[in-house]
Amino acid sequence: MNTLRYPVLMILSFMLLCGCGSPHGKPGKEAEILAPDQIMDFAILYGENCAGCHGAEGRGGAAIALADPVYLAIADDASIRNATANGVRGTAMPAFAQSAGGMLTDKQIDLITSQIRSRWGRPGFLNSANPPSYSAKSAGNPAQGALAYNTYCESCHGPGGHGGAKGSSIADPAFLALVSDQGLRTVIITGRPELGAPDWRANIPGKPISDQEITDVVAWLASQRAQSAPHANSTSNTTQHQESTNAR
User: Fold this and answer.
1) HSE-CB for 118 with a 13 A CA cutoff
2) Mean of the per-residue pLDDT values of the chain
3) Residue 29 confidence (pLDDT)
4) What is the reported pTM?
5) Are 131 and 209 in contact (CB under 8 A)?
6) Alpha-carbon 189 to chain mean position
7) Percentages of the chain per state (helix, strand, coil), in multiples of 5
8) 124 to each of 66, 82, 103, 129, 176, how far by Cα in Å?
9) With contact defined as beta carbons under 8 Å apart, do 236 and 180 qualify?
10) What residues make up the domain containing 100?
11) 196 burial class (0-12, 13-18, 19+ CB within 10 angstroms)?
12) Are residues 155 and 82 both part of a single domain?
């Protein structure tokens, strides 16, 4: 019987030594849970705050795909950060920065916006394409916008923007009440590739829609908003510098 005593004692001693690394009842570092404002992991921050609308890995959902290289080529860092931090008044895009009533710190906002570009952008992607400007440079003309719509958009979205065989209604008051002028402009430029909608170059092969025509189409759509619907969007440059959830 004595021959078993020493191996048993050695095993017990080894177990006691292994347990001396942490005080009894105190979890180790690997068990620590970070406070929400200490999380600096892009996958967690994006997944909890952005993926519900913009889709997993930025592939799009109810809102545009943030992983679209066309979008990232036309929208500058300040615009993306501003929309993330402050949201877009009058749309479903909320403010995420603590300074604007959200839950994220400035460092977390910076991480999200910088990682969106570094992960999904393609430097130089539109260098030779002469893309339209992200924000409108001038006031739009609704009458000219109606003509441009007929040329470039009606084949998909139907007469008057009320829906067609290939596209949804974009003149519906409920839709227009929830999307900003900048959102409309962004979608006309970038399209919705995840839904099969082309960008500004491909509505008519060899004839991209011009910057001014885009501005005019947005003015035409904006003129159809229900006047009683509260909305922060006019064609002002200040508002157009923002982005909506439906289309940043």
Assistant:
1) 7
2) 84
3) 53
4) 0.78
5) no
6) 15
7) 50, 0, 50
8) 17, 23, 34, 10, 33
9) no
10) 39-120
11) exposed
12) no
